[in-house]
Amino acid sequence: xxxxxxxxxxxxxxxxxxxxxxxxxxxxxxxxxxxxxxxxxxxxxxxxxxxxxxxxxxxxxxxxxxxxxxxxxxxxxxxxxxxxxxxxxxxxxxxxxxxxxxxxxxxxxxxxxxxxxxxxxxxxxxxxxxxxxxxxxxxxxxxxxxxxxxxxxxxxxxxxxxxxxxxxxxxxxxxxxxxxxxxxxxxxxxxxxxxxxxxxxxxxxxxxxxxxxxxxxxxxxxxxxxxxxxxxxxxxxxxxxxxxxxxxxxxxxxxxxxxxxxx
Amino acid sequence: xxxxxxxxxxxxxxxxxxxxxxxxxxxxxxxxxxxxxxxxxxxxxxxxxxxxxxxxxxxxxxxxxxxxxxxxxxxxxxxxxxxxxxxxxxxxxxxxxxxxxxxxxxxxxxxxxxxxxxxxxxxxxxxxxxxxxxxxxxxxxxxxxxxxxxxxxxxxxxxxxxxxxxxxxxxxxx
Lengths: 263, 174
Description:
The structure holds two protein chains of two kinds.
Chain A: H1 2-21, H2 30-42, H3 47-75, H4 82-91, H5 94-104, H6 116-128, H7 132-143, H8 152-157, H9 163-180, E1 183-184, H10 185-190, H11 195-210, E2 214-219, E3 224-229, H12 246-262
Chain B: H1 2-21, E1 30-31, H2 32-39, H3 43-55, E2 59-64, E3 76-81, H4 94-109, E4 113-115, H5 116-123, H6 129-142, E5 145-147, E6 151-154, H7 156-161, H8 164-172
Antiparallel strand pairs in B: 1-3, 2-3, 4-6, 5-6
Helix pairs in contact in B: 1-3, 4-8
C-alpha cells in the first residue's frame, strides 16, 4: 500500500509537470496509471486515501485533455514543429523577418480627423477650465481635513487615553483641590514644574467643574478666579473661558519666586 | 420611390464609411451594436454594400468575433488592407517589425501560447533585453499580443491584421 501510494504521488507530480512545463503529454502512460489506480482503490481505507485517489483522477483527466488538444493541433494542416520554427527564427536576419511580416500583414485602416464640432467642444472645455493655479489651490483645499471636535470618548476609543488612567488622574487632582480648600485658580493650575503639566491640570480641572465636583468663583472686581472643591450639580450649561499661556505661566513662576525671596 | 431608396442607402453607406474609417475610440473599429444604432436594423446589408465599394480600392471590412460562441452584436468591425502592402506604409521601425514577426511566429508555433520568458529569451538573441521587454509591452498595448499570468498569447489585432498561415509559410520557406 505504501509503495502504491508513493507511486501515485509520483505520477500526480508528473502530471503537474506535464501541465506546467508544456512537455509532450503522451509521455504519461495512461494505461499503467489506470491499472495502478484500480489496484489502489481496492485497498483504500482512510479518507486520505480516497482524497489522493480523486486528486490522481483529476490530474489524469487534465493530461488526457492535453493529449486530446495535442492530437487536434497536429492533425490540423496548420501544425508546424515549434523547434523547427525556433531554429528558423534564430537563423533569419531582422530584415527578413520584417519582410515576411509585411507580406502577411493587412493593417487596419484608421484615420484620426479633427472636425469643426470637435474643435468647438475643445474650445468650450478650454473656456470652462479654471487656471492651473486655481485648480491646484482647490485640490489642496480639498486635502485639508475639516476641523472637528474630539470628544473624550473618541480618545478612549482611539486608545490615546485609558479610561482607568483618566479616572485616577481626575481623582488625584480632586484630592489635591480638597486639601487646598478655596484657592486662586491660577495658583492651582500653574503650580507645576512645567507648562505641559499646567495644561493637563487645567483640562482635568475643567472636567471636575463640568461634573460638579469643583466650583469656579469669579470675582469681577478683583479680576480673580477662585476654585473650590464641592459636590454641586453638573455645570453643563455654564461655560467660563479661561486663557492659559506659556508667558503667563513664566510670569506666575517669577512672581512666586520673588514672593519667596521677599519673605 | 426606387430613387429615394437608393439615396437612403447611399447616405447610410457614407455614414458607415465614416464610422469605420475614422477612429472614434481608443481602439480602432466599431462594435456591431454601434453600427446598428447608427445605421438601423439592416446594418449588415449596408456593410456588405460598403464592402463592395471599398474592395475596388484594395480594402475590405472584416468582422472580428467577440466570443467563440458565434456572431453577436459585440463583434468588432474594422476596415483592413485587403491586398499585400506594396510599399512601406507604417512608421514602425524595421527592428520593431522584426521582433513582432518573430514573437508572433514563435507563439503561433506553440498553439498560440508561450511563456513570456521564453519569448524574451528568443528576441534577446538579437536585440538588447531592455528593448525587447518594452517592445513586448507595446505590442500588448497595441493589441497584437495579450498576456495572462504566465504566458503571452495572440492578441485580437493579430487575428484581424495578420495572415498567420502566410507568415508561417514564409518563415519556413527561408
